[in-house]
Amino acid sequence: METAAVRQRTVVVCFLSEQNIFMRISTLMLLLTALLTAAYWLGRGKVLKRIGGMQSIRKLHSLPGYYGYYTVICCGIPALFLLIFWFMASDALVIRWVVSQLPGQLRGLPAAELGLVINDIRNMAAGQFINPDRVTDLAAAAEQYAHLKNISRWALAGSMLVVVSLGFGWAWSRLNPDFRARNRVERVVRIGLFLASTLAVFTTVGIFLSVIFEAVRFFHKIPLTDFLFGLNWSPQTAIRSDQVGSSGSFGAIPLFVGTLLISGIAMLIAVPVGLMIAIYLSEYAAPRIRSWVKPVVEILAGIPTVVYGYFAALTVAPLLRNLGESLGISVASESALGAGLVMGVMIIPFVSSLSDDVINAVPQSLRDASYGLGATRSETVKRVVFPAALPGIVSGILLAVSRAIGETIIVVMAAGLAANLTVNPLKAVTTVTVQIVTLLVGDQEFDSAKTLAAFALGLVLFVLTLMLNVIALQVVRRYREQYE
Fold first, then answer.
1. What values do phi and psi take at 233, rounded to 5?
2. How many CA atoms lie within 13 A of 33 on its CB side?
3. Euclidean distance between CA atoms 305 and 410, whole angstroms
4. How many other C-beta atoms can be found within 10 angstroms of the C-beta atom of residue 187?
5. Which residue stretches of 175-316 are H helix?
6. How many of the other CB atoms lie within 10 Å of CB of 147?
7. Is 389 a residue whose pLDDT tops 80?
8. What is the pLDDT of residues 320-355, one digit of tens each?
9. CB 3.0-4.6 Å disulfide test: which of 18, 191, 415, 476 passes with 391?
């Protein structure tokens, strides 16, 4: 009984310690915000005091706000780097110290088992339940972990105050009416914008490298030709020798065909309907009608995809099956047609909204010139407005195609998981994204071809998306030159 009480007390103490740490982080962020706000007003006030107030503002090289912003930059950027470094390094250093203090039998465990022990220490320090057999062994380590994390937070607070003070002193010594504060602030802003613009590039490169690294491992196990041109997809390892592929079959053609079939059906619905809605709203609808119809159409984009999946599985699929039975046609309970129809409805707002914005962006002078030459409204739309807006329309359509290719929930609920090689929309098929999710669900071994196949499929999707973007760029460039 006494041991159980001691264990419970240790967990509670560690949990309260973690909560206090969290509160100190929140307080620290509020304190930093207050310091930066004070730095802004002090920097701004110094230069105004030097010139005698706002009535002599013409004596300043820059507006007063720029001096305040410069002070904030000198204080805030070093503090930001300190925060990033702390978040990256502090926990690793604390864990290393805690592990060094563990008993020899725990410290000498293999890396995988030691990782589980470290996870138990973190959970125990957070007041979460762990294996009761380990409570006694890890109580001291968890308490030490919480204590060291507490110390590191206080060290961070002190270091941040020092860094902010040094930055403020540096900025304060340079502030004077002739100081080019605007140039310095705008230079920092340009650097920030440049870093933001390259973030997407680095993210794309990172995704590509992570995917291609695992895909190469997959292609060491399965030949590339078998993957790209194989006609059977059965990634599960066979139990009996009479099943398809004793070690799995990874021919991805059925997945590619199923993806293109469902996406094609969706685009056959979304593109014509979306374009007609966009043309009507931008060229024919009265302002009052447009103000009501456009938001209603765009509501479709806000409906969760799982709702569309339920609608496809519980309403559209039985309706198609009953309709097929009345016509003497066999329709699967989970068919590509049902998934494609519902997906097309979901994608309509992407096409209509983007196309409507692009059509409205066409200069009114082009319409007026067409009317002046005697063209009717329909002729103006077909021969002037639509060609001029074509680059943006193509971009919207390709965005909708990417959305259709990447959809998963609707396909899972309405088209199923069967990798059938067929172009019959009344049959059940599956898509690349569905198989990626299926392969990565649950505990997986990343040395098996089954799991690595998900990265090979992801690489195919990446290349396909890149090709669509290149095509869109070429179309936009060609027609933009014509109508500039």
1. -120, 105
2. 6
3. 7
4. 12
5. 181-221, 224-229, 253-279, 287-302, 305-311
6. 15
7. yes
8. 888 888 888 888 888 888 889 999 999 998 888 888
9. 476
**Domain boundaries of the chain, sorted by first residue:** 2-179, 233-483
Q: What is the pLDDT of residue 268?
A: 93
Q: What is the pLDDT of residues 392-445, one digit of tens each?
A: 888 888 888 888 888 888 888 888 778 888 888 888 888 888 888 888 876 566
pLDDT of residue 266: 92
Q: Confidence class of residue 130 from pLDDT cuts 50, 70 and 90? A: low
The Cα 412–Cα 305 span in angstroms is 11
Question: Regarding the domain delimited by 233-483, which CATH topology (the fold level of the hierarchy) does it fall under?
Answer: MetI-like fold (1.10.3720)
Q: Write the single-letter amino acid at 443.
A: D
Phi (first) and psi of residue 63, to 5 degrees: -65, 150
Looking at the predicted structure, is the pLDDT value of residue 5 above 60? no
Q: Which residue type is seen at 408? A: T
Q: Residue type for 381, please?
A: V
DSSP sequence for 126-193: TT----GGGHHHHHHHHHHHHHHHHHHHHHHHHHHHHHHHHHHHHHHHH--TT--HHHHHHHHHHHHH
| Distance from C-alpha of 120 to C-alpha of 134, rounded to nearest angstrom | 8
Burial of 387 (0-12, 13-18, 19+ CB in 10 A): middle
Report which secondary-structure segment, H or E, holds 233: strand 233-234
Cα separation, 408 vs 440, whole angstroms: 14
Q: How far, CA to CA in Å, does 54 sit from each of 46, 172, 181?
A: 12, 19, 17
Structure token pair of residue 96:
């290393």
Length reported for the chain: 484
Q: What is the CA radius of gyration of the chain?
A: 31
Q: Is the pLDDT of residue 23 over 80?
A: no
Residue 59 contacts residue 177 (beta carbons within 8 Å): yes
Helix (H, G, I), strand (E, B) or coil at 249: strand
The Cα 427–Cα 331 span in angstroms is 7
List the beta bridge partners of residue 234. Answer: 249
Give pLDDT tens digits for 241-285.
554 445 567 888 989 999 999 999 999 999 999 999 999 988 888
- What DSSP line would sit under 377-388, residue for residue? HHHHIIIIIHHH
The two tokens of residue 473 are 């760029």
0.90 exceeded by the pTM?
no
Of 181, 434, 394, whose CA–CA distance to 267 is shortest?
Answer: 394
Structural contact between residues 19 and 55, judged by C-beta atoms closer than 8 angstroms: no
Instruction: Transcribe 284-301 into DSSP letters.
Output: IS-HHHHHHHHHHHHHHH
CA torsion sign for 42, 44, 47, 52 is negative
